[in-house]
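check this:
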Amino acid sequence: MSGNTIIRFDEVDFDFGYTKPILDEVSFTIRRGSKIALMGQNGAGKSTLFKLFTGEFKPHEGKITNDRNPSIAVAKQVIDTKDLDKTVRDYFQDAFEEVVYDIDPRIDEVLEIVNLEADKDKTLRKFSGGQKARLLLAFALIQKPDIILLDEPTNNLDKKGIEHLRDFLKNYQGTCVVISHDAEFLNYFTNGVLYLDVHTHKVEQYVGNYNDVVKEISSRIAAEERKNAQLKKGIQEKKDKANFFASKGGQMRARAKKMRVEASEMQESKVEIRKEDKVIPNFQIPLQENVPDTVVLFHTISLMKGGEEKEKKKRLELHKGDILLLKGPNGIGKTTFLEKFIETPTRFSEIGPEVKIGYYSQDFSRLDHDATVFEVLKRSAIENNEEKIRATAAKFLIGSDLIFKEIHTLSEGQKGLVSLARLVLEEPALIVLDEPTNHINFRHLPIIAKAVKDFKGVVILVSHNDSFVNEIGETKTLDLETI
């Protein structure tokens, strides 16, 4: 890493009350010009740390110092609901406190950087998920900040978009801190890692990319386990000798006491081995009963061509066991088509009236954000069994501390896990997964891929995560760009 320190945390504490600690006496530095990956388990507080960087949150104890008052811009995960009806021009104008009269050429400059062509009079609501991701990044860049904070920037981006972004960040001259679960993306340009440990509420700082950090942590864990194994063996030997000498009585009791003291000292020398992120266990998505072999027959497909919505005739049968990969670049209309199909399936297909569809939306718009997790899951469950609902939630790391919290209080990753729990409780015949790897800890992805692959009904999948798609193995492909 190069440059002088631009941000310093010194013994910083922060919490959301006694039951929700985030940081405990955390100290670290970020140097000017460095490219840092901010990592940690879903719900650990990574987005909270960003708000401490910007000053939106203040530390409860300790001190945060910035060198020369650097400007900071944040590329958020999603566009705020209140901004969706703004035009592109108005949205970017809001990046500045005062009116910018030459805003159009500035917009053109940042849109070129993020590889997006956009009508400045078009409202944000009309853009695809991938296009919105580019707009979020451009909104941060137009401010020309000293520090740019990126929160899951690859979500919804297609392969070309991810490649374009990683190349830009590699050559970016400013300071960059990125939250991402995409290890391959991080490895390309980062030179340091801040790891927020959800168990200890400490931030561990490492030099190197994600792969380097994984190796370092693994080596440390192995060394700690070896040390503890040796101490455990020595402690048992001391205890055995103490028992032997104590049984002899007389002067031997003093020797037994000494052995117990030595065993106690060795016990205190044992190190606490780092707790790795919890991983969800293997799970199954049950199939709806009495499902016909042909679950859905598509006759019409909706897509975007040249900025206009079009409908094309296309016959496509999906049978039990089929996994359809829906492909196409950002802006082609994949999410729009899926949402319309969910709303009015008979407009696009022949589908049985009893066929139940489970939908995992990329922006979690189908979750009632004002309801509690338990209420959302109860509405989805085919039977009103509180024990089963809570047990299913627990499998997705939604325990008693979260089950009665409102959806809007959860992290994006936790919302994703709630969405998966819904699918299990719904027992559908057809599941639609729109970018299910977004926000999800990469440790969970092989387990999710296996559950999708093993589902006995029909799967319609949109994902730009090649390794995830390869693990599932589609049986049919529909490329909207070629129809």
